[in-house]
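Hi, can you check this record?
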Amino acid sequence: MKRAAGTEWGKRYGFSEIAEAKDARSMFRERVPIHSYEAFRSDIERIRKGEKDIIWPGSIQHFAVSSGTASAGKIVPLSEEMLMINRRFTLTVALAYREAIRSSKFFRGRLLSIPGRIEEDPLHPGSMIGEVSGLQFLFAPWLIKRLYQAVPESILFLPNWEEKLDAIVDHTLKMDIRAIAMVPSWGIVLFKKLLARHNALTGNQVTTVREVWPNLSVFFSGGVALSSYRDLLDQQVGGGMDFVENYGASEGYVSFQDSPNSTDMLVHLNSGVYLEFEPADESGPRISIEEVQTGIRYRIIVSTCSGLWGYELGDVIKFTSTDPFRIVVAGRTSEMLDKYGEAVFGDEARAALGKATEATGARVSNFHVSPVMATSTSLPGHEWLIEFEREPDSVEAFSRIIDQHLQEVNRHYVIRREAAAFDPPHISVLHEGTFFEWLKRTKKKVSAQTKVPRMSEEREIADALLSISRSFT
């Protein structure tokens, strides 16, 4: 509040008074409403043009293009203070992992970190714009970039994503890769390319990444939920790899796994982000972290040292513990199917899919869920469009397990199923490569953080995926 008191937003809401108040948090809630991105859009354009002291002191020269499914195309300003704090956060995650395993072996080889693309803003020379991971790479310690990072910037910032992955594979094929930091969905693609390239060059037929990179020990994951990809990545590697997930957005980091392979994450309360919460079903008031309860879905509201004030992040989380504060990410605020009153959330869908893969031995590389309208011969329901790495012996059994899990955890869903008002899940098996082809056709640039929406109440994505899958055959 003190730092930003002299900015336009600071004067508008009286930050100097809030900073001196006996109960600053309550006064902040009273004075500063929850803002969507639209409340910042025009001011961020002014900042991009070089205007100063609008939402944060001075000027800002770094801007992240958010690629999240709920905020595609939004430009998020990142102050140098925030980028330096983000650097400290990533080092904290690595050191916490070292402490948890009581070993530094993963530091003795190379780190394969794959940031997203950045460029000088063509509309505003002197500013850098692109994916937050790319901007963050600019602020990585020079010693890590020079001695620990496996791939040089000349390859990491190649504009074409497929060409970049191919170049990375060629460059690292014979390196001692011990740690990987990237979006898990692209890890699957990278590992496939690595094995294919190794086998083509050697004439061997290795089937696991461990046979190429024998000392690979940890996968630092972020950008999308790890749960949908973890089992497949572990199988591709050949087992024995630790996973350390962090949760953040273009706006800032929130939490990380301080213990590898745990199911929840420790909230990091010194990351340049002030956290507030509001029940996702709007059943309660906006609160600060000491008032949260376990098991409740909360929307996250952040205020940051880049000048975002009372900003709704667009994610839903649940606390698993309040001493210390630990969370799981339940999905996006838009990640829910409720077209027929079934109210199925993204975390429930991912958990159901996990149950089905575990029970059947199937491997899933990508999925999307969309509603199906009622016809003269069928009830409404959900279509699960799935690209399998390994198909289950019985798609019908796979569907039954998903259905059973959703009935166990979701009262809205089970009521509709028991009332014979809703069909069981319909599984559509897609051809290999369908999701990647959809990304290439629908996104101007496919990159490290390009994501496939997991749920949509509209059929546009589902119908496009079905059409692409049919074209392969």
